Amino acid sequence: MYTLRRRLLLFLCVVGLGLPLSGCDQGEGMDEALPPEEAETRISSAVEGLSESAGTLEGGEFSNSLKGFLGLENGEATSEDWAEPLIERLDAVIKTSDERFQFDASTGVYVWSADTEEWVREGSSNSIVLEFPATEGAAGNNTMLELSRYSDTPLTVNGETVYLPTSGTGAISVDESEVFSVDLNGVDYATEEGFEVPIPQSFSLEIFTAPHTHTFNLSENSSTDYDFSFDLENRDELVAGFSVGAQLATDNYDELESTDVEELSGELRIGPDLTVPYTVQAGEIAAFDDPTEEQVNNRIDATVQFQGQELATLQYDDGSERFEVVYSDGSVDPASMFFEDFVSEMEAIWSEYLGRDDFGTVLDDIVLD
Questions:
Q1: pLDDT 10s digits, 64-73
Q2: Which residues, including other chains, have CB under 8 Å from residue 295's CB and lie 6 or more apart?
Q3: DSSP 3-state assignment of 181?
Q4: How would you class 169 by CB atoms within 10 Å of its CB: exposed for 0-12, middle for 13-18, buried for 19 or more?
């Protein structure tokens, strides 16, 4: 039972994180379905495109700037001793009062002095502007960080007042080329009984990590109805995205259980052509002590579509304890075959940041087990 629940959780995570799986509800036929060989090719091509875009993200301007600043080598920051003072001595720039960030009092142009290892105010501005070297040993301050807008709201946590951000805009440029930006708007925090800390119940967030743009949106339609979406674009071309709507049976978050998440539904997007609309009756699955294969499959409805045409379905196989892709003729492939290469690509890419051994072990245990 533990294995089944674990794999069900992995399935939901895979849908949510955007790995290209296909869907189930194998009880109905597939109109004008493609032959299995062509369906498999189209799914595989979409995954390959996702891997290529991930490589572009890691090798992009922002990634290279970050690795250069920290001197990253296999997860180790070799320039940590150099970079730490730049961050630690921001106390001289960032003004606070009663532990609240004072944006207006912190504005100005500040330049890093390598000789004295301190931030020196060199001018006035309506923004907070920091100028510093891009890498250890660089001759000049060729990097600029600008925080141009900020707002917050007071909230109570454990009887104490804290101030959490509601909006903000910032950017980083290297050699006058923007490599990173963030634009946060409309944050509204949930403070109902049951939340130990306030959490966002609605917001819009756009993050630019050259050359990719990441867009997040969360909205509360009611106390039991939430929508979340994410899209990743590479220079205005969709790489991947997903949306999920959550229907809850109760708004009593203090006693919320897995069975209270009644339904999850939305769409997965891989590139411009591949979509995976899905619906999961999560509450009904969670209510079973030991759900059978049929009980699971009858409550997961998702289809892979290429330009609106159905390619395949997904079902859970109790014997092999894995999810399988089901084609129009009833033939199957293990779902993992479509993302094994993608996972390997991600391991190679992100181990540069997190360390190859640790990152690879985590991925293999969570996804490929």
A1: 999 899 998 7
A2: 285, 288
A3: strand
A4: middle
Identify the H or E element spanning 144: strand 143-157
**Token reading at 55:** 């490589």
- HEC letters along 254-284: HHCCHHHEEEEEEEEEECCCEEEEEEECHHH
Average pLDDT of the residues in 292-321:
88
Question: Which residues, in sequence order, are CB contacts of 3 under 8 Å at separation 6+?
Answer: 321
In the predicted model, is pLDDT for residue 87 greater than 90? yes
Element (H, E) at 42: helix 36-58
- Beta carbons within 10 angstroms of residue 298's beta carbon: 18
Cβ-based burial of 357 (10 A; exposed 0-12, middle 13-18, buried ≥19):
exposed
Strand partners, 274: 270, 306
Q: Residue type at 170?
A: G
Are 278 and 314 contacting, i.e. CB atoms less than 8 angstroms apart?
A: no
- Torsion sign over Cα 198, 201, 205, 209: positive
Neighbours of 179 (CB within 10 A): 22
